[in-house]
Amino acid sequence: MRRIILVVVALLTVVTWMYYSNDAAQTEQTSSKPVTVEVVTVEQGKLREQVHLLGNVFSAHSVNVKAEVDGRIDTIAVSSSQAVRAGQLLVQLDDRHQRAVLQREQARLDDILRQHQNLLQLLPKGATTQAEVDRYESQVAMQQAELALAEAALQDRAIRAPFSGKLGLVDLSPGQLVDSDTVLTTLDDANTLRLNVPVAARHLGRIEVGQQAKLHQAGLSSRIFNASVTSIDSRVRGESLNVYIQLSIDNQQAGIAPGTLVTGELDLSASERVLIPLQAIAYNGDRRFAYRVNQHVAEKVELELGQRGDNLVEVLSGLNAGEQVVNKGLVKLHDGIEVEVLN
């Protein structure tokens, strides 16, 4: 009986040993199988960075039309929302008094000129003196100045468009009394619009006059139009550390009204950089790594990173353009492991 028990125990020992030996062999075979990964090539390129723009557009030229002098409206020569050209008459004030003054000053000048001419004819005959001639020449100059003042006063009664553009509301009536503070209407040259927006001063070296931006009317993202940087402010605002840039918009293409709220993005200029996808980065605390593939072996390399874009990040050190790094299958990797590249 004892011998039987010993035989059974020996058989169980042999079977157990064979089982675990076979399992270890399978485990070793499984663990030596390469890890499947996908790789990407480290690129040399430009990282797209943008600044957000938001503001209200305004006309390149815009004025509140006012009279130079007080007076009563005689004629309203335009209507609301009318397109006008530079120099076109908008409103005429009663100018009867100024016309009478102009005629009087012109008559005085004509009289002085006649007397001056007579003196010039008498001077060679000795019938007058050079001093008298000189006195009349002074009177001629003075009267010409008086006539110029009368002409200017008459012109002040005619309010004309200072530049070509489109009028706002014209809410006036003939006979209405106005003064130099009364806004008769508004005038905008809306063919070109301007937009002043702040950007961080740290971006100054990456924004240049002539750069293009994409804008759209707030709430209407499908309606996109172009703008270009026309000027950059020379001062940085102390509290915000921002600097203002001005963009110009061809409103014949955009077709929006002055005062419209617009938003958009401006691409910052960038130099060539070493770039990898964000998903190719492994993290360990505050350290960043990537797995470089070299002859089917994954090499763990530590990275120093720079600027980030939407899906790419700049590599300052650790990788070179043209090398391959793992971007899918990082979880199973460690330094020196054999890999099988699927792509």
TrEMBL record:
InterPro entries: Beta-barrel_RND_2 (IPR058792), MdtA-like_BSH (IPR058625), RND_pump_MFP (IPR006143), YknX-like_C (IPR058637). Residues 62-181 form the Multidrug resistance protein MdtA-like barrel-sandwich hybrid domain. It comes from Agarivorans albus MKT 106. Residues 276-341 form the YknX-like C-terminal permuted SH3-like domain. GO terms for cellular component: efflux pump complex. Residues 102-153 form a coiled coil. Residues 195-266 form the CusB-like beta-barrel domain. This is Hypothetical HlyD family secretion protein. Gene3D superfamilies: 2.40.30.170, 2.40.420.20, 2.40.50.100, Helix hairpin bin. Belongs to the membrane fusion protein (MFP) (TC 8.A.1) family. GO terms for molecular function: efflux transmembrane transporter activity. NCBIfam families: RND_mfp. The keyword Transmembrane does not apply. SUPFAM superfamilies: HlyD-like secretion proteins. Keywords: Coiled coil. The lineage of its organism: Bacteria, Pseudomonadati, Pseudomonadota, Gammaproteobacteria, Alteromonadales.
